[in-house]
């Protein structure tokens, strides 16, 4: 234990607490590029939050206004990250392992940023959903925002 | 398609977008109890956000203030859900499938609510972490809040 400081040990403990959940990653391998790995982790959180919203919309879990607000809010916060801070130069598909980022992200930065604004707008609407009908009505626009960005800026599977 | 309204189709489309990620759940089976299933989904989102914070603390992904703030913020929002709205009566371990909720949750509601406040406090500190040192310093208290609650209110594996 001598090689570890107290804070490193605390970090390791916190990480171990969640090891069970972390094993079940949708990415079998973590990218060797720290920004690509961070993007994938961000997308996994978006996907998990979408899972809460989708399962609620389908009636698989009980409608819970607080949970819906938190899930939509989690997506909303992630949508407000400056995309240029994660989609850094030289991390397009082919240049960084596991990346699926199209070069259009860098040739059309305004268009890419707009997709994040669309995600923020659609998720903000869902943050205010007070019943199942409102949630269901907002799912299409949010799913559409995801799809539109993926179609324009995400390349084929590696 | 006649049986589906436009909004149902939109929900299905949104769900399909994330099917790949959703398959990789840490819970092989979804509880038949809607509240237990919702709790598990909530905890998966907490775990994914903890993964971002932990991977950043360990240097596996690049420090990104926006991503750290969003991950900590996602946990913070989930911490603010009224626990009684998800830990509903009759959903303790043994009563609802896949539940690991101890009966202490209902016999000591104030103590359980305090654990959520502790999670909110520790995650709020991390929302303001502007560098790696601040993040690392805040990981121990947050991991400790997780651990303390699990030790007091979560039963053994099913």
Automatic annotation (TrEMBL), chains A, B:
InterPro entries: Cyt_c/b562, Cyt_c_II, Cyt_c_prime, Cyt_c_prime_subgr
Keyword annotations of the record: Electron transport, Heme, Iron, Metal-binding, Signal, Transport
Signal sequence, renumbered to the chain: 1-24
Protein source organism: Sulfitobacter pacificus
Keyword field contains Transport: yes
Protein name: Cytochrome c-554
């Amino acid at each position: 234990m001598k090689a570890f400081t107290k804070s490193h040990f605390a970090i390791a403990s916190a990480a171990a607490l969640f090891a069970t959940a972390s094993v079940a990653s949708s990415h079998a391998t973590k990218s060797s590029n720290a920004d690509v790995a961070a993007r994938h982790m961000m997308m996994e959180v978006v996907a998990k939050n979408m899972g809460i919203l989708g399962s609620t919309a389908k009636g698989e879990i009980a409608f819970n206004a607080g949970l819906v607000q938190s899930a939509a809010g989690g997506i909303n916060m992630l949508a407000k990250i400056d995309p240029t801070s994660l989609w850094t130069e030289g991390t397009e598909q082919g240049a960084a392992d596991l990346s699926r980022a199209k070069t259009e992200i860098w040739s059309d930065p305004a268009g890419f940023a707009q997709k994040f604004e669309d995600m923020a707008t659609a998720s903000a609407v869902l943050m205010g959903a007070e019943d199942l009908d409102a949630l269901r009505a907002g799912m299409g626009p949010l799913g559409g925002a995801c799809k539109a960005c993926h179609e324009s800026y995400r390349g084929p599977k590696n």
